[in-house]
């Protein structure tokens, strides 16, 4: 039985004041005991958010880490070991905004995934196709390739301590959501690809759906057999909306 995870990606949003307000709102949410919750603030706000959620159930993660796991001469980057030292538990790797706007290749994503795990962080590997790729019938091939790059370099067992997030690029921040059936098809393919290498890894790994998840569509998406929660962008910036999504994951 997989425990659902609802993760809020706050992207490059917020000031210290607005983030303090959001964190306070988050603490007031009733979260079902069987659901894990994490938020991913801007790095600058991580310490404040950790203080704000301390004693509660919400975990804090980072949106990115350096390819090198250890601290060193790499101006502007933050090492996974430093994130761990600061109190982060997870880190996003391969978010489509970084893949497309910052040209992060599969190879870089694999290195970040490995760096995260070597530091004891849980990597949340984001995969997903563009609209053009979906329209060309390439969805499963694209997602399969992104997943294969990690399996081939690091082995399937790394997914015992990782999360996968399927995020169709065309659904991120657009208000368009994959239908539960469309999402389920891709989630099942991801699980089958992992199962081809290890049935028990595939069975245990949590696969989140991301792309315009909100309180109004969460229950339907989370009701699909291979959807184990959500990676939520815009809607996670509203504590009540995010709380409602977390509660939908508990049903
Ligand atoms: C995201 O950025 O990971 C995301 C899913 O964003 P949104 O929920 O706003 O589509």
Summarize model confidence as the mean pLDDT. Answer: 97
What class would the helix/strand composition place it in? alpha/beta
Looking across the biggest beta sheet, what order are the strands in? 1-2-3-4-5-6-7-8
Largest sheet: 8 strands, parallel, barrel
CATH class term: Alpha Beta
List keywords for this structure.
251 residues, alpha/beta, TIM Barrel, eight-stranded parallel β-barrel, 11 helices, 44% helix, globular, binds phosphoenolpyruvate
Short description:
With 251 residues, the chain is α/β, with parallel strands linked by helices. The protein has helices spanning 16-27, 46-53, 80-86, 96-101, 106-118, 131-135, 139-154, 180-197, 199-204, 215-222, 239-249, and strands at residues 5-9, 36-40, 59-62, 90-93, 122-127, 163-166, 206-210, 229-232.
Walkthrough of the structure:
This protein is of the alpha/beta class. The chain has a single domain (5-249), classed as Aldolase class I (TIM Barrel). The protein has 11 helices and 8 strands. The protein has helices at 16-27, 46-53, 80-86, 96-101, 106-118, 131-135, 139-154, 180-197, 199-204, 215-222, 239-249, and strands spanning 5-9, 36-40, 59-62, 90-93, 122-127, 163-166, 206-210, 229-232. It has an 8-stranded parallel barrel, surrounded by 7 helices. α1 packs parallel to α2, α1 runs parallel beside α11 (239-249) and α10 runs parallel beside α11. Residues 9, 167, 172-173, 210-213, 231-235 line the site of phosphoenolpyruvate (PEP).
